[in-house]
Design the sequence.
């Protein structure tokens, strides 16, 4: 058992941080990664996650996950895994809390719609790059500088947690050591994100009655096995409670596998330092092939039966239409943008400015904007 105070030799040490863009005096009782975590929590972009769709809009239920509660679940799982592996829990927590901060309104559909709108102008939208812009520029909390002035390791993790960017293609990201792997703390985020949303979406999908127990049983043999166990142990329990029992066994199985397999991979790679992690040809944190296969199967199942289900179509159509029409309106009539964005458009392509404006919006706010400009 590890409580997070032990640091393995391959963990990032806060005293070895490459530091902030603008130097700041040390805080008396919080280290730099704890301060970064707190800066993320106190940012506006973080608070907005509450009103951004993860999978289900508020039309379904107030107790389904939104981007904020999803983020908190990722942080919970990532902290647990990091503590067991002797990784830097403060850094992991900061990275987990910031990992979805660049997401536009309307979940995945919103991201796709915004990207399509940008591609019509020869540009594109990428939520990791957008997250970096938020923490580097859009957040205004300090008199001395723009952005949150986060440490290098948190900014690097924002960019590199989910995939590698090509160094030739992104020369502007050169400082983030694109040719080397990110530290294990960042590598963990991607897989804990996958684990968190797969189990949460099964839960919300079942509760929304878009997924039936029979469907899940048929599509996911591992889940079916756990469900049989739960039914045997708790034959009189309500179906939802049997479902819960099965789901938490599944979550435990995946998280346990992530911990043990990552430990094995660290040993197999002979890694004994952060530099060693960086120099590996591939990422080290991950699931065993068997469990990875299960996770993929679950993801596929969710795509087929939930994300692409007819029940969620109306929201997806809304997302596409609203984003496309607002984007188009502000492209043709930039004078309808707020003044601060009109000023920004003097320095940057108008499409980029419109994209930044829309990406920052919550679901509520974009509906409001749409109503204002396209009423009746
Ligand atoms: Mg996520």
Sequence:
């Amino acid at each position: 058992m590890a409580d997070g105070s032990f640091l393995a030799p391959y963990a990032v040490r806060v005293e070895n941080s490459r530091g902030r863009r603008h130097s700041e005096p040390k805080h008396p009782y919080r280290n730099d990664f704890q301060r970064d975590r707190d800066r993320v929590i106190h940012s506006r972009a973080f608070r907005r996650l509450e009103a951004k769709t993860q999978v289900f809009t508020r039309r379904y239920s107030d107790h389904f996950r939104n981007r904020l509660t999803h983020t908190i679940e990722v942080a919970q799982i990532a902290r647990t895994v990091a503590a067991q592996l002797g990784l830097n829990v403060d850094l992991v927590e900061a990275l987990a809390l910031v990992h979805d901060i660049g997401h536009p309104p309307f979940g995945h559909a919103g991201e796709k719609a915004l990207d399509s709108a940008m591609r019509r102008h020869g540009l594109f939208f990428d939520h990791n790059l957008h997250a970096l812009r938020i923490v580097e520029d859009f957040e205004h909390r300090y008199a001395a500088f723009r952005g949150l002035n986060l440490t290098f390791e948190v900014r690097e993790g924002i960019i590199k947690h989910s995939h590698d960017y090509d160094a030739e293609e992104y020369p502007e990201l050169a400082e983030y050591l694109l040719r080397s792997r990110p530290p294990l703390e960042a590598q963990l985020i991607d897989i804990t994100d996958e684990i968190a949303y797969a189990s949460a979406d099964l839960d919300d999908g079942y509760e929304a009655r878009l997924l039936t127990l029979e469907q899940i049983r048929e599509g996911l043999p591992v889940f079916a096995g756990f469900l049989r166990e739960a039914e045997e142990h708790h034959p009189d329990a309500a179906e939802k409670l049997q479902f819960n029992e099965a789901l938490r066994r599944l979550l435990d199985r995946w998280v346990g596998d992530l911990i043990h397999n990552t430990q094995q991979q660290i040993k197999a790679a002979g890694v004994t330092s952060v530099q060693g992690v960086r120099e590996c040809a591939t990422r080290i944190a991950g699931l065993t092939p068997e469990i990875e296969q299960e996770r993929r199967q679950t993801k596929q199942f969710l795509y087929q039966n939930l994300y692409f289900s007819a029940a969620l179509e109306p929201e997806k159509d809304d997302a596409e239409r609203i984003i496309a029409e607002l984007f188009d309106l502000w492209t043709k009539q930039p004078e309808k943008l707020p003044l601060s964005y009109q000023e920004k458009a003097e320095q940057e392509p108008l499409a980029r400015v419109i994209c930044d404006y829309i990406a920052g919006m919550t679901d509520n706010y974009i509906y409001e904007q749409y109503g204002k400009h396209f009423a009746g």
